[in-house]
Amino acid sequence: MTVPFSRREFLATSLGGIAAASLGPLSCERRAASHTHTAPLAMWALTGTLKSDDVCRQLDAFHGADWGVVLYPRWGLELEYLGGQFFERIRFIVEQAASRKMEVWLYDEFTWPSGQAKGLVTQGHPELEAQLLAVGRDGTSRVVPVPETANLLLTEATARFLAVTHERYARAIGEFFGTTVRAIFTDEPSLPHQHKPRKPGDVAWELVWSSALDKALGGDFPKRLAQTGDVAHSPLWREYWAAYTRVFHDSWVAPIAKWCAAHRVAMSGHFLGEGSFGSQVAYNGSLRRQLGALGIPGIDEISTRTDPAKCEALTLAFIAEFTGRERMVEVYALGPPTMSLATMKKMVDLCAACGVDRYVLAICPHDFRGGMFKREYFGVYSQQQPWFREFAKVYTEYVAEAAVVARAAKPLGVPWPADEELWAVAGPDPRQSKPLKEMTERFLEAARERIRARLEPGHESVVARKTLEAEWTFQPVGLNSLRLDAPVLAVVDVPRVAELSVQSQLVRSVRINGMAVNLDAAPVDRQFDLSYRRVSVAALLRAGENRIEADLTEPKPLRFLPALILWGDFAVDAQGHIVAPPQAIKLGDWRPQGYPAFCGTGRYRAEITLDKLPQYLGVDTGDYPVSVIWNGKRLGRRAWSPYRFALKDAARIGRNEVVVEITSTLGHLLTPKESPPIGLMTFCTDP
């Protein structure tokens, strides 16, 4: 009897076979991390008050895309972090996720860096505060306190961190550990100014310090250092870095990894300083040792550098060493919000070639409240992105396929320097060490060459293509959009539908042409984002100049957080005037043709006459998702290249009706002048 397999079940079976074939005996902790999970994980920024209906709606969306979630408390959270209401909401979320059979990870901090519990570790415990050893060029030194910052080199500080975070999560949702809740994410545990580079004019180097480190160094390290003639090149620094590595591991990393293993969850996350040998020493002593303690080791690739010549090759080479485990990457966080799924796919290809099989998408905000606090960049990969509904699952399926490649990937084979080699030339300022910089450059060159070889594309056959000209009509699927930053809006044709999204944190009141907009009665904008309210303003607009008076909490417009957004059945002319939508649109970018800030799906429609039947259709969309309907038959959808569709049983001689739908990004609304071209660029058929 043949048992039918779904595509997802087949991939899981394939992954399980690869894992079984390639792994030797595993420890209990590593065996727990060798499952066949592949779901992308939304780094779900928990903001606002997390009302039940809103939580369930977003969980339904993630579940529909086959994504899991990392519960990530972030700026904009309106509940007391680690308070009673916070844990009541956490339990509700986990229960709802469990009912949907979703994978959940916890995040161990409020934003980052991990280890502080938003100040609770040191609150009332000054003895747990961090210390720096300030060392002058003459070898004299003094201990400098770092107030309100936990000392990660003290087991007592780690014990308190576990008590106020992990233990409380265990009491609230411990019965879900090892099933729904699979891992706890630690994020760049570090101290302010940790081994910071010494700037010209600085009188001292600053190194992390604690009583445990002092003891590991024999209790007289500062005294011995002062007795050396050339402090900057003293052989004692090798001793310091070896001791620092051991103390950081034994005081912070190992206790948390042990706690996680005892509670049936994997410790995951990543550390600072992955990008060079100097920064690895400065932040971790030995990144190899610290990361090796994690059940699901991870790396940070938030810059999304997909070119092997520019990628974080040392980081990727490092994670490639941990064969036989799930390996995680935190990706995409720096955005921009115009990032295409095609770019996201290239990042998966790069990481999978180096063994990464789990993806934490940073960030997926519950709402945009956090944009008030973190303003310099904005990466969004959740429901606010117009492509999410139709294409998030396409991304999921590709990640699952890439995991087959990742779990079969071998280390890059570039020789690694021993820790002792790094410590010997690190000195007091590893990030400025010339030998470490040279070692990094040599390693990067070799690693990038290996990565490039793994990503070498196959050669596609060149096919003669015929460009099809047509007169295209264009219509947004839904409403056009436009951010309003100026106090005057010129209207030539008054739209029938006009709705205003008002950012609750930025706008105290709004008046249009002297008439007050009733924000108190405006519902939360669940169509766009929960931090906005949405109200109809069609009756307030008029032909000519419209005055928009907004009482704002910020003096200037925020780049990624518009105060006001207009939605409606309108177009925008070259002068920025509101006009009626055009009847037809030329082949090419839709932005200068009435839709300069459109956030959604645009539908092109045309009639094309064929004198012979082509085999395939090719569409250039500016590298954005597309779906095609030909003579009423849906040909499929493509999230990335090749944007090619088979025309068998769809095309016919003579008249053909073609519908092409292209989806933009949130960034096309938030930063329209910085956004890439989008639309129907070319339209070709293969013979």
Structure, explained:
The strands form 8 sheets. Strands 1-2-3-6-8-9-10-11 form an 8-stranded parallel β-barrel, surrounded by 4 helices. Helix content is 28%, strand content 26%. It folds into 3 domains: 7-117 and 152-191 and 236-454, TIM Barrel; 464-473 and 582-687, Galactose-binding domain-like (Jelly Rolls); 480-568, no CATH class. Helix 4 packs across helix 6 and helix 5 runs parallel beside helix 9. The chain is an alpha+beta fold and 687 residues long. The two termini are 43 Å apart.
How would you concisely characterize the structure shown here?
This protein is α+β, with helices and mostly antiparallel strands and 687 residues long.
Distance between the termini: 43 Å
The structure class reads: alpha+beta
Query: For this structure, what is the CATH class of the largest domain?
Result: Alpha Beta
Low-confidence stretches: 1-34
Approximate strand percentage: 25-35%
The Rg value, from CA coordinates, equals 28 Å
Which outline best applies? Answer: globular
CATH topology of the largest domain: TIM Barrel
The quaternary state of the protein chains shown equals single chain
The major sheet is characterized as: 8 strands, parallel, barrel
